[in-house]
Amino acid sequence: MSPLKRWWRARLARRPFPKTWEPFLPQIPLYPWLSAEEKRELKRHIQIFLAEKKFEGAAGCPIDDQVRVTVAGNACLLLLHRETDYFPLVRTVVVYPTLYVARYTRPGPAGTVEEGMEVRAGESWPLGTVVLAWDAAKSAGFRPGARNVVIHEFAHQLDLEDGAMQGVPVLPPDLLELWPKVFFGEYKKVASLPSSTPLSLGRENPAEFFAVAVELFFADPWSLQDHHPKLYALLSRYFQQDPAALV
User: Fold this and answer.
1) 210 Cβ partners below 8 Å, 6+ apart?
2) Dist CA 68 CA 70 (whole Å)
3) How far is 64 from 245, CA to CA, in rounded Å?
4) The pTM is what?
5) Residues in a beta bridge with 92
6) Which residues of the chain have pLDDT under 50?
7) How far is Cα 65 from Cα 69, in angstroms, rounded to an integer?
8) pLDDT (0 to 100) of residue 121
């Protein structure tokens, strides 16, 4: 990070958090259970995130402070306690009012390519854009069975920071050897079993497995800890958080 960018972000972080944004903070899962210092840190991250990212409404979705603060707050839960560059590949967040239909292209059997349309709650692009459905984003929770599309899609962006979406974010030195053993070991187990655990939604590939695991870690950490304790412990070390212990 350049000295100028560091100075600019430090300046942004010193600004008072807007009072008009405060009512939207309790809508961010985990926020009510964070310590006072963690809440202050999250607010700083939100201010920097919103200063650097552009929001665009799609299909008539209005972009107001509730949308911006809610999305930024969820995304910035991934940044607590860690040195961060604020999702450097993301330039724009596109928000639809509800679930939307998008075209897909993916490999099929025997070298074929499948094309079609599907309903989505979000997607994460390699070239600077995250797309979200507002109704899914605002319904995120912190409880058994909860989902969080914002965290899911921004987990993909963490994964992309090393140049490839393959289930491996930029890692601290102490996790370089442990990550492949634990993460890919758990992925192989889930990929070879019937759909019997919360992580079964990520069986498609390691990148999706990572995004689903991170989503569970922040939305339903108890299920992840119960079914995959080694993976939960790995993510706890990476994020330097223990959300299952908050409640």
Assistant:
1) 155, 156, 159, 167, 168, 169, 183, 202
2) 6
3) 33
4) 0.94
5) 54, 129
6) none
7) 6
8) 94
